[in-house]
Design a protein that fits this description.
With about 200 residues, the protein is mainly α. Helix content is about 80%, strand content about 0%. Helix 4 runs parallel beside helix 10.
């Protein structure tokens, strides 16, 4: 009886801990696959720094990753899903739906969640320093988070354009057209905006 009671209290304590720290719990679930893959790659390449670098990249440029995923969905959804959408077959449809959930829906949800990380981080840091002004802390956290994403997007674009094989293709047109395209890519939440536009366009078809 004592063991059952202790087990019940232990399970209840864990449940309360998860509820209290739900944000961190969801974040750990989202980044867990990345950690596992990066550790495996680190072993293969004998590069112990790889997991930290990959995790840092995933946390910092989630907004741009959403943008890239949307471009793949526009080009060919199978590039992101990993499977072609079958025309018939219950089992084939089920496998495609399962792959679509993990390859598209869960991936996009994870990246959307990761976008909130810098805002939550700055808010908690500011909250520790100033506990009596939550509205001011929230405003400053939004500003700092916005600037952080803006800076990261700018770095990503510069590195991409200077790489030997850039994945970002500038549109045809004059300098103003290309400049406007780059401005839209650098601005924070361009991935979210691209996703919302893609969903709206897809529903309208």
């Amino acid at each position: 009886m004592g063991i059952l009671t202790a087990t019940r209290w232990g399970a209840l304590s864990i449940f309360k801990f998860i509820i209290r720290h739900w944000y961190i719990f969801v974040l750990m679930i989202i980044i867990f696959p990345t950690i596992i893959q990066s550790i495996a790659h680190a072993r293969e390449t004998n590069n112990p720094a790889y997991p930290f670098l990959q995790l840092g990249v995933r946390l910092s440029n989630a907004d741009h990753l959403i943008y890239e995923d949307v471009q793949l969905l526009k080009e060919d959804p199978s590039l992101l899903v990993g499977l072609k959408n079958p025309e018939q077959g219950v089992w084939s449809k089920f496998k495609y739906g399962w792959a679509f959930f993990w390859g598209v829906i869960w991936r996009l949800f994870g990246n959307i969640w990761l976008i909130t990380v810098p805002f939550v981080f700055f808010y908690r840091v500011l909250k520790m320093r100033q506990t009596s002004e939550p509205a001011k802390n929230l405003t400053m956290a939004l500003i700092f988070g916005f600037l952080f994403i803006l800076f990261i997007n700018l770095i990503i674009i510069i590195v991409n354009l200077l790489s030997a094989e850039p994945t970002l293709i500038l549109p045809e047109g004059d300098m103003y057209d290309k400049s406007w395209f780059l401005i839209k890519i650098v601005l924070p939440f361009h991935g979210i905006i691209a996703l919302a536009n893609y969903i709206y366009t897809s529903l309208g078809k």
